[in-house]
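This entry is listed below:
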Amino acid sequence: MVNKTIVIAEAGVNHNGSFELAKKLIGSAADAGADYVKFQTFNASRLVSKSAKKAKYQQLNTVDDDDSQYSMLKKLEMPEEWYYKLKEYAEERGILFLSTGFDIESIDFLDKLGINFFKIPSGEITNKPYLQHIAKKAKEVIISTGMADITEIRNALEVIYSEGLPKEKITLLHCNTEYPTPMCDVNLLAMQHIKNEFGVKVGYSDHTQGVEVAIAAVALGASVIEKHFTLDRNLPGPDHKASLEPDELKSMVESIRNIELAISGSGLKTPSPSEKKNINIARKSLHYSNALSKGNVIKKDDLIAKRPGNGVSPMDIDFYIGKTLISDVEEEQMLKSEDFK
């Protein structure tokens, strides 16, 4: 049985405030074979104070000299009317629509919109009122854990559990909130630590450059992969530089699907159906290394292991040493048990 990994193509704010660009991102995610395309739902006034400064990566990846996080995010808000049109377009393209809500009002809007589950971003894992509000919706929840330690994750889960949401509806994503994440900081085995600690489904929200870490996470048991993507990494905006371009996203999804197949076996070491036909071709049988006459007593040097492997296995060579031939044999003739008394 193949366990399918949910692949979330994170468009985020890479629409740059353009509805047409948002549509193109949906089409690109659908073409890549992702399961979900995800945006971000927020009101800048509710999300950040006007005095808040941009993160360093945001300063590096935006073109204006304005250091205000509020000003940057205000330009990236998506009007409510976009959501209905984008969701409809996603359905036309055969991909599910999703968005991360960053405040309680946004969560209520997304609930009304009919999204399948709630995605909690790393920055909200310590926001108790927000966590309580989401838990009361009784939908499945996926939680990114960037910047969090085990105690903070446990505290967030306790808040969610206290509102009646069972662990069966929760998936925790290991994550590093640096854009892009240095390979030395990925700490991918922490995903398994989270699984062992809390007994919930786990996955990985990837901010590294490239696709290999996300693919490795699937091999390690990730049930969800989330990855930022863009139409062009050279576009201005806070997240483009740490995002995949369309061909890379497609390659990542294809690789994940291959990994799913590769780890879907029984786990028992037995020959697979596809390789059984090659056993006799690749293995060897005992053959005579030279011509021998009837009555010859077999020595080790009289035998050699050669392909094909449909005769006596070389593992049985000791049984035939010291045996007496009852007929003449030719060089390279395959040994048979009936050659002996």
